[in-house]
Structures are given as structure tokens and as C-alpha cells.
């Protein structure tokens, strides 16, 4: 576990931050941007959870914990001095998302159009989560083009955006209350 006794350290006052291996990089480094966007994704789930309960809320709580794991994974370079034994996303976490997607999707009405973000408050926040998660995924694929990263990070984010989409539909009365796009409706 992490113990924080002091919140500010002044270590970043000159525009640098420490990675999980102790190396220092600019705060605008692509790696920092990637795990920062994962953190933003997590914050959107926190908003959605204000409007969920039961098993859905438990799923989201597990995902929030996974996203901290993912952030820790990205924060510790694969080739860094603390790479061995570092916390990494594992296949079981991706597989769990897939199983949850399949379970929820099996109860949804057929999709007949693209969906506009909205419906219930939880669904609207999950659509926000989906879009922020896609940005995190894009940043991770860019980072993977520069540095070695755990490929399961990209897989996890890819599944999570699908999970958020399916859960948003599930919480919109299993798709029956989705807000559908009507192409050209307001010309």
C-alpha cells in the first residue's frame, strides 16, 4: 500500500515529475499524459457511480481499482530499474470486462442507430467515460510506438470503452431509453 504523509513535495515545481522507477520526466511527457488520461477516465466513473447501485456499482468499483493498476503499470517503464515485480495489468482483468460486456449486452434491445450521449445521468457519465477512455487508449498506442509498454494496457482500455458503452445502454432501460441519432433531423 501507499502511505502519503505529505501531499505537496515541491518536486514538480520546475515542470518535472517522477515515474514509478524514480526517473524524472517532464510533466508533459507522453507517458505522463497517458496515465493522466487514465486518471481522468477513473474520475468520470466516479461521477457515474453517484447514480448507480448494486452489481453495476460493484463492477464500476472494480474498474476504478483496475484503472489505478493500469496507471501504475504505465507509470513504471518496462525497461526501468523497478520493472521487475512492478504492478501490471493481467489478462484476467481484460477477460472480466469481456464477460461483463457479454452478460449485459445479452439483455439489450437491438441497436438501430448511433446513440447520442444521454438518457439517465449514469448513462450520460458513462458516455463521457467512453470518450475519455478512447483518448487514453489513443495516447497509450502513441506511447507504445515510442516505448515498450504492457500490451494489455491498450487491450484493457479498448474493452473498457466498449464496457462503458454497453453499460450506458444497459442503464438506459436495457437500451429502450437510448437517445438515438436521427441523421439530418434538424436541417
Strand count: 4
In angstroms, what is the radius of gyration? 18 Å
- Secondary-structure arrangement, i.e. CATH architecture: Up-down Bundle
The average pLDDT value, as a whole number, equals 94
β content, as a range?
Answer: 5-15%
Please bin the fraction of helical residues: 55-70%
Main sheet properties: 2 strands, antiparallel
Q: CATH homologous superfamily - what is it?
A: Cobalamin adenosyltransferase-like
How many independent structural domains?
1
Morphology: elongated
Topology as H/E string? EEHHHEHHE
**CATH class type:** Mainly Alpha
Structural class: mainly alpha
CATH fold name:
Hypothetical Protein Ta1238, Chain: A
Q: N-to-C terminal Cα separation, in Å?
A: 56 Å
Strands ordered across the widest β-sheet: 1-2
Low-confidence stretches: none
Continuous helix count: 5
Amino acid at each position: 500500500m501507499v502511505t502519503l504523509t505529505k501531499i505537496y513535495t515541491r518536486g514538480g515545481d520546475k515542470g518535472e515529475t517522477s515515474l514509478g522507477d524514480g526517473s524524472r520526466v517532464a510533466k508533459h511527457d507522453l507517458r505522463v499524459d497517458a496515465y493522466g488520461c487514465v486518471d481522468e477516465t477513473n474520475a468520470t466513473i466516479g461521477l457515474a457511480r453517484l447514480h448507480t447501485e448494486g452489481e453495476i456499482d460493484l463492477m464500476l468499483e472494480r474498474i476504478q481499482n483496475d484503472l489505478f493498476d493500469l496507471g501504475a503499470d504505465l507509470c513504471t517503464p518496462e525497461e526501468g530499474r523497478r520493472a521487475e515485480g512492478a504492478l501490471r495489468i493481467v489478462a484476467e482483468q481484460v477477460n472480466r470486462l469481456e464477460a461483463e460486456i457479454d452478460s449485459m449486452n445479452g439483455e439489450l434491445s437491438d441497436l438501430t442507430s448511433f446513440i447520442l450521449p444521454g438518457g439517465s445521468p449514469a448513462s450520460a457519465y458513462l458516455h463521457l467515460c467512453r470518450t475519455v477512455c478512447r483518448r487514453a487508449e489513443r495516447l497509450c498506442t502513441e506511447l507504445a510506438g515510442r516505448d515498450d509498454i504492457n500490451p494489455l494496457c491498450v487491450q484493457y482500455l479498448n474493452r473498457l470503452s466498449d464496457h462503458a458503452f454497453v453499460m450506458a445502454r444497459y442503464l438506459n432501460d436495457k437500451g429502450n431509453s437510448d437517445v438515438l441519432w436521427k441523421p439530418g433531423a434538424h436541417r
